Amino acid sequence: MTDRDLLRQRLVAGLAALDCDLATDAVERLLDYLALLARWNATYNLSAVRDPLEMVTRHLLDSLAVAPFVSGETLADLGTGPGLPGIPLAIAAPRRRVTLVDSNGKKTRFLRAAVRELKLDNVQVVEGRVENVEGVYDCVTARAFASLSDMLGWGGHLLAPGGVWLALKGRVAQDELDTVKPPFAVRSVQPLAVPGLEAERCVVIIAGSGAPAGELGTRARP
């Protein structure tokens, strides 16, 4: 069995545990992304995770655990780093337009290479500070790069009316949730069970202005 076979085996088992049904070509594209990340990581230190098997769990499955909560036709992934969770989500739902935002030039160079080599036609890369990014998006994801109040203060203008903000956290305290103020509102905090990962994970689901009551916090296929 090759190294890629082992990675595929772990990924497929994890996807099954997440009840995430992806086509074979999407699985292979995720593995291609992982191989590219591992290769760049050796030189550019894009991730503290070095073991490819651990990358399957901590990067791919950790990202895809939030997929059922993503909705809409457009998504912005803020502080995306090496493309997490944005690239796995883009591969899982190729009809959704995904914008990856990061201010680190080293990371955006990798992102552009990944978009080009993986032929991710639904993905664009924006290098810059979140507060300077333009546009509006149906869904915004942010993987614990700041506190909730800072995230919304810097990037709240990107959330479309009726949109949903998904803040990926390890753990979130009530006092942090209480910092979310109108026009935003915390709708729910959903635990995420990432296969093979013992660490605590959750997604804080935040509604923007004009979000219909009762439509957020539900699990819908991307």
Structural overview:
With 222 residues, the chain is of the alpha/beta class. Helices cover 36% and strands 21% of the residues. It is built from seven helices and seven strands, in the order H-H-H-E-H-E-H-E-E-H-E-H-E-E. Strands 3-2-1-4-5-7-6 form a seven-stranded mixed β-sheet, sandwiched between helices. Helix 1 (3-17) runs parallel beside helix 3 (52-64). The longest helix is centred in the first third of the chain and has 21 residues, at 24-44. The chain is globular and about 55 Å long.
Number of helices in the DSSP assignment: 7
Q: Mind telling me which CATH architecture this is?
A: 3-Layer(aba) Sandwich
The assigned structural class equals alpha/beta
The H-level CATH homologous superfamily, spelled out, is Vaccinia Virus protein VP39
Strand content: 15-25%
What is the count of structural domains?
1
| Topology, number of strands | 7
Q: Supply Rg.
A: 16 Å
Order of secondary-structure elements? HHHEHEHEEHEHEE
Largest sheet: 7 strands, mixed
What topology, given as strand order, has the largest sheet? Answer: 3-2-1-4-5-7-6
- Low-confidence parts: 211-222
- Would you tell me the overall average pLDDT? 92
End-to-end Cα distance:
32 Å
Features:
36% helix, 222 residues, seven-stranded mixed β-sheet, Rossmann fold, globular, alpha/beta
A few lines on this structure:
The protein has 222 residues and is of the alpha/beta class. The protein is 36% helix and 21% strand.
